[in-house]
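Review form for a predicted model. The reviewer records the input and the model, then writes brief findings.
Reviewer: anonymous (R2)
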Amino acid sequence: MKNVVRLLCVITSLAAISSAGVTISSPANGSAPESPVHVVASATSTHPVTFMRVYVDNVSVYATAAGKIDTSVGMSTGKHSLVVQSWDSAGAVAKTAETISVTAPTPTPTPTPSPTPTSGVTISSPANGATSSSPVHVVASALSAAPVTFMRVYVDGLSVFGIASSKVDASLAMAAGKHNIVVQSWDSAGTVLKSAIAITVSSSAPTPTPTPTPKPSPTPTPTPNPSPTPSPSPTPGLPVPPANAVTINNIDQITGWQSCTACAGAGGAGPVSKISMTQNIASPSLDGKSTMFAITPSSPYSDALWWKQLGAENAATNLKYDLYFYLTNPQAAQALEFDANQANGKMRWIYGTQCNIKTANGGHWDVWGNAQGNWLSTGIPCSMPTAFTWHHLTWEFKRTATTLTFIGFTYDGVTHYVNKTYTGRPSSVDELNIAFQMDAGKLMQGYSSWLDKISLTYW
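Model under review:
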């Protein structure tokens, strides 16, 4: 069908012609800011900057698909290495590092209730100085001159919960002992407000044994903003992302996607076809902003590949790739490919998957053999997708220092366990990306695919 590794060649050649730099405006190098630390940085490059990431002591703590960063990062007291790194549309990487000494936030008394408060963060529960068992029930609200857009809870200087709302109501696990809790808010004008308390946690409550819940219907009706609640799966089971997992949502709406036709073919040298990508499509769509991918073949079995670089996340060992897709004439498709790629400067892990629709023995799901460099059938059927229907697909992967495992996937509510492990391959780049590929058939019929609510979760 084609060789997935052609992506490395394209990215490497594009990166060679870029020039980039990162400037950290806040905090100053060698300074001693209070936690949470206000981080302000910007990036410049020959090509448009598409992504930036903040690392504290070599651990990723914040990421944005933009050329500027203005955020607050919780850090423990003491010395820390702060690195801000950027990527541009050609794959060029730039970074700036500095060392800071962080001081702990000073607890302030709970604000005295006022009959007509105008602004501030109010922590309703727990009370300042209280003793509580774990998990601790944290309830807070914020008022500001402009609408409050986000709130975050810090425990001992570390971010443990965030929500795009003016209210917090969450139960948070904490170890026994004394803790400082800071609740911080941001409004639409950029105003930052916060309130802090000190509490003592007496003990941790036992973790309840989860009860399995029924799987979703094979053909669920999508809602504008579905928020599926993960439920335990039978052995071997798909992993449930932990509380500290990072999710990049609505990747289909992020700018800076890259594409090619010839590189998507066998050996990275396939035929050149006419392709296009149109973002923010209102219909068909689940959230009002889907992306349409289209191919007009020039030769039989032409291919088109699109990918979006998401920076690098070398510490991540688990990935969850989630999306919805929609076709009007699926009979024109030879195969649909859904990939993720990760590299840490030493090894590359290609999480390549495809619904191989038209084969002599009937459609089936394939995974990429990595070191073997070819597609390997899982034996799990993948028939032609139903037209004019949103299909939901979630793939889950994990890796070690040298191998990767295709754990399993859920397609239209039905979970399949793959559990196939392959060896990665050497690499000198650092990256994390997702990709989508459309393969045309023998009859050279053009067709379009719509993707929506693409997300990648990693930990």
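Findings: The chain has one helix and 31 strands.
Further findings: The CA atoms of residues 204 and 372 lie 48 Å apart.
Recommendation: see findings above.
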